[in-house]
Design goal:
Strand content: 5-15%
Number of domains: 2
Protein name: GntR family transcriptional regulator
Oligomer: single chain
Keywords: DNA-binding, Transcription, Transcription regulation
Strand order of the largest sheet: 1-2
Largest sheet: 2 strands, antiparallel
Shape: elongated
Distance between the termini: 31 Å
Region (Disordered): 198-220
Organism: Streptomyces piniterrae
CATH superfamily of the largest domain: GntR ligand-binding domain-like
Number of helices: 9
Radius of gyration: 19 Å
Structural class: mainly alpha
Domain HTH gntR-type: 1-62
Length: 220
């Protein structure tokens, strides 16, 4: 239930700011109100849902600063995940990652943007699982979903280069070189920033002292 509602929020089927009425959602997904209520609580803890006075549960409307923070957090966590994967990966993880890199390079040569987007997600999810830490894997998975919700990624602009970078990270992971895997992933994340674009105008910031947003990065 939680996954279904989250997927509809990420895809835009449930728009930012829209009310999430339990009865309507229960009918939409063919379930009772109980799993809907539990899912909304979980999604609120993840930041996808918020509660408003007199309105109840609504799809969250992240600010530009909150969107920027996600990319900063990713820049910290994904290199850590790659380093952990180098130390803890199993032969099965390496085999799956090699297959994904092979397919990604092939699709990049022939230009299949929808395939590339899905393969990129699978690569990063498998790498997160290879880290051998359920907590870190859950954080990275949630982070990628929230970035997908807030940003579009212009993958074709650097598809071949991106998959070469994936391949280099994989080689370091397969060799068990944690520091190289960390450094390569950090460089990969940094190079990917210019292809991130906010999906829609972000909600205005509340008044108060905030660090300035680098709009060139958007962090977009």
């Amino acid at each position: 239930m939680c996954t279904a509602i989250r997927d509809d929020i990420v895809s835009g089927a449930l728009a930012p700011g829209s009310r999430l009425i339990e009865d309507i959602l229960a009918a939409r997904y063919g379930v009772s109100r109980v799993p809907v209520r539990e899912a909304l609580r979980t999604l609120q803890s993840e930041g996808f849902v918020t509660t408003r006075h007199h309105a109840g549960a609504c799809v969250a409307e992240p600010t530009e600063q909150e969107a920027a923070d996600l990319l900063d957090i990713r820049a910290l966590l994904e290199p850590l995940g790659a380093a952990r994967a180098a130390a803890r990966r199993s032969p099965a993880h390496v085999k799956v990652l090699r297959g994904l890199v092979r397919l990604g390079r092939e699709r990049a040569r022939h230009g299949h943007p929808s395939d590339l987007r899905q393969l990129d997600g699978w690569f990063h999810e498998t790498l997160a699982q290879a880290a051998g830490s359920p907590s870190l894997t859950a954080l990275l998975t949630q982070l990628r979903r929230k970035i997908e919700w807030m940003y579009t990624v212009e993958l074709p602009a650097r598809a071949a280069e991106s998959w070469d970078e994936h391949g280099a990270v994989l080689d370091a992971v397969a060799r068990g070189d944690a520091e190289r895997a960390r450094a390569l992933m950090a460089a990969h994340i940094e190079r990917s920033l210019p292809v991130h674009r906010l999906r829609r105008p972000a909600a205005p910031e509340v008044s108060g002292s905030k660090r300035p947003v680098n709009t060139a990065r958007a962090r977009s």
